[in-house]
Amino acid sequence: MENLKEEKLATVLGVRTLTASAFVLRFERSELAFQAGQYVKLGIPDQPERREYSIYSPVTASYLEILVQLVDTASFSFRLKQLRSGDHLWVSGPYGSFNLEDNYANDENIFIASGTGISPFHCMVLSYPRLHYTLLHGVRNLNEGYDRTIYRNGQYIQCTTSESGSEFYGRVTDYLRKHKPDSKAHYYLCGNRAMINEVRDLLMAADVPAINMHVEIYF
Ligand SMILES: Cc1cc2nc3c(=O)[nH]c(=O)nc-3n(C[C@H](O)[C@H](O)[C@H](O)COP(=O)(O)OP(=O)(O)OC[C@H]3O[C@@H](n4cnc5c(N)ncnc54)[C@H](O)[C@@H]3O)c2cc1C
Fold first, then answer.
1. Which of 2, 51, 116, 127 has the most CB atoms in a 10 Å sphere around its CB?
2. SS3 of 123, please?
3. Single residue among 46, 69, 95 that ends a domain in this structure
4. Residue 165 is part of a domain; what is its CATH number?
5. Which atom of ligand 1 is nearest to the CA of 80?
6. Which protein residues are within 6 Å of ligand 1, measured from CB?
């Protein structure tokens, strides 16, 4: 296994649609070694843009997967969705240090995600079957519980803002106001900046030390 700090071409293995605006793209892993929580940079041949995507598939898989939110039809994410098996992608990485602490198996880990920010947690949960975790997932609709059946019963708490019927009707921040955070747990926050800032303020008010907060901001 190696680090691909220089870009390599990888073959696309397939696109799996999850909702009208989210999909999983699978492509060749080649020899890429990574830790759960890290991300890759992707490019489409003959196009200048590069974008970052957390790795969704476990460290044990022979392929790489990413979970992508389709932003709009003029965007990079839209062009990713048009790819088909046999097409190619530029891949470099891995990047980032959004990883579990070494003593993850003994710690209580609280994962807090908005939207596709669930991706690194999907990778961590599949990579480490003995992980102690609770995952709070903030989305608008019920159908955005991406691949939720992989999470153990009671450990996935979907927080929906536009529909009731999930584990919690409201935002992840509303959930944290109702359920006082454990100041000894490790918190991993991933997604949009506004959610992360608000959650961080709530955790600080609950005396969670900054060293126990880990953050990955997508936009
Ligand atoms: C470290 C890192 C990891 C990332 N991992 C992922 C990932 O696993 N999955 C993923 O879908 N994106 C991820 N992103 C965001 C991704 O890199 C792109 O920014 C995103 O796909 C939008 O690019 P675009 O060209 O399609 O749209 P752009 O035209 O570049 O973006 C338009 C707007 O879309 C919004 N936006 C961007 N990303 C998202 C999103 N994920 N969900 C909702 N709205 C968004 C923002 O408001 C942005 O200004 C990550 C970003 C970083 C920095």
1. 116
2. helix
3. 95
4. 3.40.50.80
5. 26
6. 39, 51-54, 66-69, 71, 75-77, 96, 115-116, 119, 216, 218-219
Digitized pLDDT (tens) for each residue of the chain, 219 residues in all: 556 678 999 999 999 999 999 999 999 998 899 999 999 999 999 999 999 999 999 999 999 999 999 999 889 999 999 999 999 999 999 999 999 977 776 779 999 999 999 999 999 999 998 899 999 999 999 999 999 999 998 999 999 999 999 999 999 999 999 999 999 999 999 999 999 999 999 999 999 999 999 999 999
CA of 173 to the centre of ligand 1 (A): 22
Residues 83 and 26 in one domain: yes
Query: How far is it, in rounded angstroms, from Cα 48 to Cα 211?
Result: 37
pTM of the full predicted structure?
A: 0.96
Q: Are 188 and 198 in contact (CB under 8 A)?
A: no
Structure tokens at 205: 């008010």
